[in-house]
Amino acid sequence: MYHTVRPEAREGSRMNSVKTIIFTSLIIFFLFISFYPTLFELSKSKSLGDPAREFILEHNFYWPDYNLYLSKIRQGTEGRLTALERYTSEPHVGSLIQEFYVVLGLLGKTMGLSPNSSYQLGRIILSPLLLIMIYFLTKVFFEKFSWQILAFLIILSSGSFPRLITENNGVFQIGRFMEWWSNIDAVQRITFIPHILFGQVGSFFLLYKLTNNKKQITKNKLIFYILLGNAVGLVFPPSLITLDGVLLIIIFIKLAGRVKIWRCKLTDFAVVIARTPTLRRETRQSLEVDSHAHFRSLGMTEVTKLVKIILFIILSTPSLLYLFLITRVPPWSSLVIFHRTHPMLIPFWEYLLGTGPVFFLALLGIFISLVKRDKKFHPLAFWIIITFLFAILFTYIKEQSPLRFTQTGLFIPLGILAAYFLQQIWEFIMSLNYKDLSVKHFLCFCYLLFVFCYLILNFYMMKISLNWQTNFITQRVRANIPPIPYPPQTMYPLKSWMDGIRFLKNNTARSDVVLAEITAGNFIPAYSGNTVYFGQSNTVNYEEKQRLVDKFFKGEMSLNEAQLFLRSGRIKYIFVSLQEKEKAGGKELLDLYPMLKPVFHNSSVTIYSVNPRSF
Question: What end-to-end distance do the CA atoms of the chain give, in Å?
């Protein structure tokens, strides 16, 4: 028996296909724009200005971090299941801090990928997931396709106000505010650092699932959400902290409203009973039974869901508690100590300018949602409020840098609320009844012109960002001085210098401690897997070790001091290149410290082993 498909159903299916194609095309477009600097750098891999240098594809050019992530990925690639801190020489056991990158290394190992490629794999997997998550959020908050498209464009393109910059030659250039903070840049943030992407995807998925009133939270789903919440907490704590803050506000508001309703109902019931003393006893008892049943059923579905949300908050807290406790123990305590001594505060006004017009449009959207009591948008408003509240709180409680809370995907609620404001303004214009339609047409024209100019400005600032990134890469490709750079990621390393690191990788144990200055110390754990005495902000007693390293290479230690220094630091190898030689001022380490024995030498590097018998 044949069934005839109605024309309306066929048309609806065709329209859904068209919408899917449009959104898929937009996702591919934005991913291409964001990955373009990486592709551009890959295209230059065979044309380095200095043939003596080795091309290494890097991503996050903030020097303390990128090689730190690679060192954890390498541990997974080499079969470890928990993370060690290779940037400090103190003995310790593995932990779940930055376990995300260990798992990424294990995944890369199954595919035969290097640590660098495994890092890029994290970006390739999580960036599309983030955009798909944003796509579904626009569908949740906007029914009409046109508003979904506008919200999607605003979320992904919103960026800084233009900033006029005067070059040394007096020429004006247009730049961005807070260029150094990559997470507010529309081009960089959607394919940003993998663990931050994971935190954003996981937290907004959980926000949607836990606040969606249309679907019940089953037992199995709750277990999954709790496990995911703990994973988010371990991978990027600010995301879970912000999510829990939003959920607590929602619980408080709903419970307060439910108590008020119950109180009113009970009062009304008592008045009815009090005013009807002549009712038969059976009738009164029946009325009381019915009322109690009504009160029991009143909002119980919602209360049950609130209880499950409370359980989620409680049972996802162990991840945060674990991090709190383990960061009291060396070497993991160095993370907190570094945040305390080098906090990244929010330069508030510059941050607003760097966020751009979307911030102010979103504030207007929050105001309208509160006036109209449009509760669907309130969780997004709470997300923005909680972000800045925690940023203020952690300015005083120095357990985390306040600026980290702006990395929780703040651009997503800002973009949705900005689109909501524009939607409300359009609907207001459409509701106006003017006898002279030319006034309404003029208002529509002004509105459309504003939206068009706003989007054009966003895309123009994205082009400015692309130019800035590709110019930096071009300069990096051409650069040939200094031989050993600082910060490390400003230039590609010398091949002969990397050969020294490869010698360590192939001829030493991973637990063997290597002494080097900051650039080599930053590279060695990432590319050889060795432990270093000093090389990153996670190094225990960073400043004191830096002073001792400089003193050693300058030859300012006596023989006994040097022996004690090497023994207490468990140092087995010393990596000497141009940076270390500069500190030595032309002195030969062998002349200063005869307990050393050369085990590797080329044009750039000499590696010494420490003779334990000399101690």
Answer: 93
CB atoms within 10 A of CB 276: 11
Residues of the chain with confidence (pLDDT) below 70: 1-12, 60-63, 168, 170, 257-301, 613-615
pLDDT of amino acid 485 = 82
The dihedral built from the CA positions of residue 492, 497, 502 and 505, taken in this order, carries a sign that is negative
Q: Alpha-carbon distance 148 to 416, whole Å?
A: 9
Q: Look-up: residue for tokens 């059923």?
A: 297
Q: Tell me the HSE value of 468 on the side-chain side, using a 13 A CA sphere.
A: 20
| 517 burial via Cβ count (<10 Å: 0-12, 13-18, 19+) | buried
What is the CA angle 55-60-65, rounded to 5?
Answer: 105
Give the type of residue at 51. P
Q: Is 147:423 a contact under the CB 8 Å cutoff?
A: yes
Closest CA to 108 of 75, 85, 82: 75
> Which tokens hold the place of 211?
């606040």
Cα separation, 406 vs 378, whole angstroms? 19
DSSP 500-565: HHHHHHHHS-TT-EEE--HHHHHHHHHHT--EESS-STTSTTHHHHHHHHHHHHTT-S-HHHHHHH
Type of residue at 194: P
CA distances from 364 to 349, 367, 419, 454 (A): 18, 5, 10, 16
Residues in the chain: 615
φ/ψ of 575, rounded to 5, equals -100, 115
Phi, psi of 369 (to 5 degrees): -65, -35
Q: Helices 194-211 and 378-396, interaxial angle, to 10°?
A: 130
Separation CA 516–CA 497 (nearest Å): 12
Q: Which tokens sit at 94? A: 């593995």
Q: Which letter does DSSP use for residue 330 in this model? A: T
Tell me the two tokens of residue 329.
């123990």
Q: Going by DSSP bridges, is the β-strand pair 513-515/571-576 parallel, antiparallel, or unpaired?
A: parallel
Token readout for 234 is 């371990």
Alpha carbon 222 to its chain's center: 24
Strand partners, 435: none
CA-CA distance, 446 to 433, in Å (whole number)? 17
CB 553 within 8 Å of CB 590:
no
Separation between Cα atoms, residue 439 and residue 449, nearest integer Å: 15
Question: Helices 99-110 and 194-211 sit at what angle, rounded to 10 degrees?
Answer: 110
Q: What are the structure tokens assigned to 427, written together?
A: 């609907």
Contact predicate 376/137, CB 8 Å: no
Contact 198, 126 (CB under 8 A): yes
Distance CA 409, CA 497 (A): 39
Output DSSP code: residue 376: G
Neighbours of 321 (CB within 10 A): 10
> 53: which strand partners?
494
Count of beta carbons in the 10 Å neighbourhood of residue 398 = 14
Q: What is the pTM of this model?
A: 0.90
Q: What is the 3-state secondary structure (H, E, C) of 190-244?
A: CCCCHHHHHHHHHHHHHHHHHHCCCCCCCHHHHHHHHHHHHHHHHHCHHHHHHHH
pLDDT tens readout for residues 371-413: 999 999 999 999 999 999 998 888 887 777 888 889 999 999 9
Q: What is the pLDDT of residue 230?
A: 97
Please write the tens of the pLDDT for every residue from 482-524: 888 877 778 899 999 999 999 999 999 999 999 999 999 999 9
